[in-house]
């Protein structure tokens, strides 16, 4: 039986459609079955002021009455929701995007460039609209400490998952950029939304994006929005592969050549290509522990050494080219502003000096370079240590046949890893400034995890510095990055630096 608007007690969508509603909560079953957005059961009415069109009598009255009362009008629910979304979207974009991203876009390091197209896609896409709603509202809830907003965010997150599942189940072959945008919005929610078990959910979203892209393959030509989205997903997929310590497909020619057939690679694309080799190195290092005899160990260790040497050469050539292309120093030191305690009189700086950079693009390039260097040096170093402790015969043979496994080289690897971790730590203050936007906080999350893991392995007191920085980010920027990274480091598969 058709519902009667205002009397049936059904959801707002069924009442408007004058259809029967099963009154399930929080969303009615009929709306879910039809794949339409359920507006819920709220009956709230809001009042706004507006200037009514003056009548002839009113015009005459205005001549003698300078001030007159302002009439009230009801604001429809959809208008209220649209106004709220616009406010939340704008606040999140203002927080997330840097104040000046011209240098970043020029060098290809703007992680938030893809997000600029999302509000337009959200107009006609319920999955994206709910995902962005969840993300933006979660940000407002953390800033204002509003429990109701966080509840609204969680509901929008659930609706986004349902809508996304429905869209994916109806697809035949081509995966649209809207689907991938929705998945990455949900991945961002795990970082900025302070959700339960956020690291596990983040891995699930990134794995879903990876599976879709691997299945679909890569075309030879991509548009500018697709290029920005490709860059975003590539870095996320590399981080995920490094966590699993398994090689990823992004090192294959299908992913390193075709997308750039019509343009020249800039420094951002090149360093990401080098970073994509790291999961393979980590997998090869772990494979040493599965060898059954000395001969197999020697073969795999030699292969690992050659691969590391090749990647070191690529890293150094890349960094040398950047130094030659930069006018002046790429970074310099200035006094640090973050103390270990809140005592203004205490000289308790973990690092008395912090790194400054000429522009954000250079800063991003350097921290990605240091992170890649730290991963390569620490992985290679730990392989040397394992061989020396568990297979002394193989270690001695390698030292005599390949200088890269000698004791001196082993010590040099440790020093290089320690220096890279130090550089990452000293550069963090630059990235967490408000004018850098939320993208910079997202960018440094992975370098923090890698550097902190190395200092923990070394049992260095410098590991405490990262707890101070993460607390500073939560207190001043309302970003629960510490919760996300702590969950990541506790996972069984996401060990970034294996001890």
Can I get a quick summary?
The chain is mainly α and 499 residues long. The protein has three domains: 1-45, Irregular (CD2-Gal4); 78-250; 266-490, no CATH class.
Characterization of this structure:
The strands form 2 sheets. The protein has a two-stranded antiparallel ribbon with strand order 1-2. The chain has 499 residues and is mainly alpha-helical. The relative contact order is 0.08. The chain folds into 3 domains: 1-45, CD2-Gal4 (Irregular); 78-250; 266-490, no CATH class. 64% of the residues lie in helices and 3% in strands. The chain has 21 helices and 4 strands. The radius of gyration is 27 Å and the shape is globular. The protein has helices at residues 12-17, 29-34, 56-64, 77-96, 102-107, 118-122, 126-144, 147-170, 177-192, 198-216, 224-244, 253-256, 267-275, 278-287, 294-325, 360-390, 392-401, 407-431, 437-457, 463-477, 481-490; strands at residues 46-49, 72-75, 332-335, 353-356. The model is unreliable at 1-7, 44-56, 62-75, 403-409 and 491-499 (pLDDT under 50).
**Principal-axes shape call:** globular
Question: What's the helical proportion of residues?
Answer: 55-70%
Low-confidence stretches: 1-7, 44-56, 62-75, 403-409, 491-499
What is the string of SSEs from the N terminus onward? HHEHEHHHHHHHHHHHHEEHHHHHH
Gyration radius, in Å: 27 Å
Mean pLDDT: 77
Helix/strand/pairing class, anyone? mainly alpha
The domain tally reads: 3
Strand content: under 5%
What strand line-up does the widest sheet have?
A: 1-2
The tally of beta strands, per DSSP, is 4
Number of helices: 21
Largest sheet: 2 strands, antiparallel
């Amino acid at each position: 039986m058709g519902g009667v608007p205002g009397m049936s007690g059904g959801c707002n969508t069924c009442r408007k459609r004058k259809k029967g509603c099963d009154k399930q909560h929080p969303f009615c079953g009929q709306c879910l079955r039809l794949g339409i957005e359920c507006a819920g059961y709220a009956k709230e009415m809001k009042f706004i002021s507006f200037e009514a069109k003056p009548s002839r009598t009113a015009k005459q009255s205005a001549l003698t009455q300078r001030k007159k009362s302002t009439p009230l009008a009801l604001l429809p629910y959809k208008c209220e929701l649209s106004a709220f979304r616009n406010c939340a979207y704008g606040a999140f974009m203002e927080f997330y995007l840097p104040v000046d991203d011209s240098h970043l876009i020029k060098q290809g390091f703007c992680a938030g460039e893809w997000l600029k197209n999302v509000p337009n896609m959200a107009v006609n896409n319920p999955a994206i609209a709910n995902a962005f709603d969840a993300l933006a509202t979660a940000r407002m809830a953390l800033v204002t400490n509003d429990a109701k907003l966080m509840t609204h965010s969680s509901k929008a997150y659930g609706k986004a998952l349902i809508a996304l599942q429905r869209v994916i189940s109806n697809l035949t072959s081509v995966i649209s950029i809207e689907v991938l945008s929705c998945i990455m919005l949900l991945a961002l929610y795990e970082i900025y939304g302070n959700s339960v078990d956020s690291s596990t959910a983040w891995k699930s979203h990134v794995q879903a994006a990876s599976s879709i892209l691997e299945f679909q393959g890569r075309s030879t030509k991509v548009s500018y929005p697709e290029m920005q989205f490709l860059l975003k997903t590539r870095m996320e997929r590399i981080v995920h592969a490094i966590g699993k310590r398994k090689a990823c497909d992004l090192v294959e020619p299908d992913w390193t050549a075709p997308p750039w057939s019509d343009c020249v690679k800039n420094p951002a694309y090149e360093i990401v290509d080098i970073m994509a080799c790291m999961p393979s190195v980590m997998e090869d290092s772990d494979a040493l522990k599965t060898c059954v005899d000395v001969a197999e160990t020697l073969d795999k260790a030699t292969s690992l050494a050659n691969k590391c040497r090749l990647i070191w050469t690529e890293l150094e050539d890349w960094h040398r080219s950047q130094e030659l292309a930069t006018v002046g120093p790429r970074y310099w030191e200035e006094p640090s502003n973050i103390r270990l305690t809140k005592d203004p009189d205490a000289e308790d700086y973990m690092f008395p000096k912090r790194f400054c950079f000429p522009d954000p693009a250079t800063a991003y390039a350097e921290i990605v370079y240091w992170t890649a260097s730290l991963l390569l040096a620490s992985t290679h170093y730990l392989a040397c240590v394992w061989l020396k402790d568990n297979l002394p015969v193989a270690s001695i043979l390698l030292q005599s046949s390949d200088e890269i496994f000698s004791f001196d080289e082993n010590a040099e690897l440790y020093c290089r890893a320690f220096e890279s971790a130090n550089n990452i730590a000293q550069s963090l203050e630059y990235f967490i400034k408000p004018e850098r936007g939320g993208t910079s906080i997202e960018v440094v999350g992975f370098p923090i995890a890698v550097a902190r893991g190395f200092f923990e392995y070394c049992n260095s007191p410098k590991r405490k510095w990262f707890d101070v920085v993460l607390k500073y980010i939560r207190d001043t920027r309302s970003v629960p990055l510490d919760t996300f990274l702590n969950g990541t480091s506790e996972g069984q598969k996401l060990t970034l630096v294996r001890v």
